[in-house]
């Protein structure tokens, strides 16, 4: 009857395996922060350098985080951060790009 004592975490969106994942959690946090910065700064035309570079780095960190993620919680928030970083990156590219106005 040992199986009767296990917790049922499969039904929860934020299910975890109960183990620490420091690398995955770090990539998750970095992706969310970079995505938020890229998304917010993309709304300002003159901040296109910041939004495009933070968006590009956020896309790469989020993609690697997706590659090594373990739990559904990590994958869910990585997709949120990736989406925000991608929107910020593409709007930053539309407003002037990675090197726009430097040369």
Strand tally is 0
SSE string: HHH
- Beta-strand content: under 5%
Radius of gyration, taken over Cα atoms and rounded to an integer in Å:
17 Å
**Quick check: average pLDDT?**
88
Helix content: 55-70%
Total domain units: 1
| SSE class | mainly alpha
What low-confidence regions span 5 or more consecutive residues with pLDDT below 50?
none
SS summary, helix count: 3
State the major sheet.
Answer: none
User: Which term fits the overall shape?
Assistant: elongated
Distance between the termini: 71 Å
Task: Please sum up the structure shown.
With 103 residues, the chain is mostly helical. Helices cover 63% and strands 0% of the residues.
Characteristic terms for this protein:
103 residues; mainly alpha
List the helices and strands and how they pair.
Blueprint: H1 22-41, H2 48-68, H3 72-95
Helix pairs in contact: 1-2, 1-3, 2-3
Give an account of the 3D structure.
Keywords: Membrane, Transmembrane, Transmembrane helix. With 103 residues, the protein is an all-alpha fold. It has one domain. Helix 1 (22-41) runs antiparallel to helix 2, helix 1 runs parallel beside helix 3 and helix 2 (48-68) packs antiparallel against helix 3 (72-95). The mean pLDDT is 88. The protein is built from 3 helices and no strands.
């Amino acid at each position: 009857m040992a199986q009767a004592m296990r917790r049922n975490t499969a039904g929860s969106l934020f299910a975890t395996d109960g183990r620490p994942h420091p690398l995955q959690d770090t990539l998750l946090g970095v992706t969310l922060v970079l995505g938020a910065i890229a998304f917010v700064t993309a709304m300002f035309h003159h901040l296109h350098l910041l939004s495009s570079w933070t968006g590009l780095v956020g896309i790469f960190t989020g993609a690697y985080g997706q590659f090594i993620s373990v739990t559904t919680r990590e994958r869910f928030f990585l997709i949120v951060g990736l989406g925000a970083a991608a929107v910020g990156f593409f709007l930053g590219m539309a407003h002037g790009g990675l090197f726009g106005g430097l040369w």
